[in-house]
Amino acid sequence: MAKSRRNGETDKKKKLEKRFLLLTGFCLLFTASCAISHGVYHTIEKGQTLWRIAKTYDVDIQDVAEFNDITDVTQIKQGQKLFIPGALQVLKVEPYRPAAISEPKTEGKKDAATPHTRPDSTVTHQALPKEPEGKIVVEKWRFSWPVKGNIISTFGVRNGKKYDGIDIAAPTGTPVSAAAEGEVIYSDNGVKSYGNIVMLKHKQGFITLYAHNKENLVQIGEAVKKGDVIAKLGDTGNVSSPRLHFEVRKDRKPRNPLFILSQAHGDPLKKRLSCISARMFEHLKRLVNELIPKSSG
After folding, report:
1. How confident is the model over 19-45, as a mean pLDDT?
2. How far is Cα 167 from Cα 162, in angstroms, rounded to an integer?
3. Region 72-79: what's the mean pLDDT?
4. CA separation (Å) from 198 to 25, 41, 174, 180, 187?
5. Helix or strand run (H / E) with residue 33
6. Mean pLDDT (the chain, rounded)
7. Does residue 161 contact residue 170 with C-beta atoms inside 8 Å?
8. Which stretch, 33-47, 107-121, 173-187, has highest mean pLDDT?
């Protein structure tokens, strides 16, 4: 009897833990789906730095960098438009102006009778303060790619809509792997537009989300290792073609996956550009075929 009671208590505890994980995952999803995408676009002017822009708007430089795919503070240029997350209006950013050299300091009094005599003086040159650059954290070692394919949608804001992750196109049924070791905290379809979703909790406050799956292959509470297959890629939810929607969150805050995924899958920004170039080429080819009449032979 005692053993049976202990087993019953253990089962009850496990069920409660699963319910807690399910509730945690659903709350995270609800928060994500209700996120407000407010912000403004700032046009960079001469003398403005990324650090100075972020400081003026009181926004974390990391957030500005990730929303605008900037991995190096020297990448910005005059005339470029930056999306400033959370800002309500465009602000004037003062350009960086180095401090002038200090005036000479004269010691002793000048003799009025000998005006051409140069008094002893010492000239001190104040060191020019260097503009802080700020630090952008890029952790390419942390997570592996969950699936191989072309990036067809990136993190950030487009046409006033906020995108908290990236979309990777691949054939239906392609295995979706865990980006890192962790625990399954959600495996369901509670948000209609996302379709079938798996969420994993990792160390140091990281959470990853895998959506639009054809089929989820893991259960809540299950421990997974990096590279374990957790789902099959599909087109469930509000999408028109097979893809994986992948998100990374740190302490519930959306992070740009391209700043955290390894480079083993290739340079994601180059891959994105190659994908865009391929689409442009196909479009141009169709235009040429339409404009140039076929020979009647």
Report:
1. 65
2. 13
3. 92
4. 9, 34, 15, 13, 5
5. helix 2-33
6. 80
7. no
8. 173-187
